[in-house]
Design brief:
Blueprint (H helix, E strand, L loop, with lengths): L7 H39 L6 H14 L2 H30 L4 E4 L6 H12 L3 E3 H9 L3 H27 L5 E3 L12 H7 L1 E6 L2 H11 L3 H4 L4 H19 L2 E4 L6 H17 L2
Parallel strand pairs: 1-3, 1-4, 2-3, 4-5
């Protein structure tokens, strides 16, 4: 029977064919992921990096040459995604063995620490914490209300107490998002910061963070300023050297990325750090 775009039964048949093809692809995908994890064990033993850009190019060139021209670009995009997922699984497997410290994410307010931290903790299968949330639990009120009520000096004292309490009680395998002022808190020593774990500075453009903040409403330290962006930019400029000095590694995020891609980049940063020991 010729194709009839107005025939619902024929459309259902074609959809059934797609489902059957997907059912054939899935076991191959799982087998590839299992094999990737086995490769990770070899790389772990040899202390070699996961990524080999030259090999990826070879694979993609072979794929491009093996399919009809009309599908070449889509096939390369499809397999590039599979390769990226395989590399992430390898990094997770390596980090599950070699990463023996908490990962502490620092950066300016609204740089994405909590969003990325939650996704990273899920990928690594470890708990996630946020020092602002811990401080709120200790104080019994939101951090913005606490800051406004007690002032900056007392706020930083309470924040330091919360951070030290977290260090004393939390598992060594965890991801923690640090409040924007934690690494510059005058009541925390370098030893206190080191005890938090492997500190990764999430370096994002100031306008990106400011735009996110503006959508939620300005915090107390900006709410009464005639030029909130100028003041925020000044604070960020002052903290950049502090973040750089405190950080064990840096994740540069010059543009807004999907969370999955940002996690992949973070895994690469962590893998590079643990392999450099």
């Amino acid at each position: 029977m010729p194709d009839d775009p107005h025939n619902p039964a024929q459309l259902d048949t074609l959809r059934g064919e797609i489902d059957a093809i997907d059912a054939e692809l899935l076991p191959a995908f799982i087998r590839r992921m299992r094999t990737a994890e086995q490769i990770a064990d070899f790389k772990l033993a040899a202390n070699v990096p996961v990524s080999r850009p030259g090999r990826e190019h070879i694979i993609l060139d072979k794929i491009r040459a093996s399919v009809p021209t009309e599908f070449a670009d889509d096939a390369v995009r499809f397999f590039r995604t599979i390769i990226a997922i395989s590399c992430s699984r390898q990094r997770i497997r390596i980090l599950s063995t070699k990463l023996d410290r908490r990962v502490a994410l620092c950066g300016i307010k609204h740089c994405g620490k909590s969003c990325l931290g939650i996704a990273l903790a899920k990928a690594l299968n470890v708990p996630f914490f946020d020092t602002d949330e811990l401080l709120e639990a200790d104080a019994g009120k939101p951090v913005r209300a606490l800051y406004k009520e007690v002032g900056e000096t007392r706020f930083r004292e309470l924040e330091a107490e919360t951070v030290r309490g977290f260090v004393a009680s939390a598992s060594q395998r965890a991801v923690v998002a640090l409040g924007g002022g934690v690494v510059s808190n005058p009541f925390l020593t370098p030893d206190d910061l080191h005890a938090l774990g492997l500190i990764v500075w999430m370096d994002v453009p100031v306008p990106t963070a400011f735009e996110r903040m503006a959508r939620e409403g300005f915090p107390p330290f900006l709410a009464d300023k005639a030029d909130p962006f100028g003041e925020f930019n000044r604070i960020c400029d002052a903290r950049r050297p502090v973040f750089r000095a405190a950080a064990d590694a840096v994740l540069e995020l010059p543009q807004v990325l999907p969370v999955e891609e940002a996690v992949d980049r973070m895994l690469t940063v962590l893998e590079t750090k643990v392999n450099s020991k």
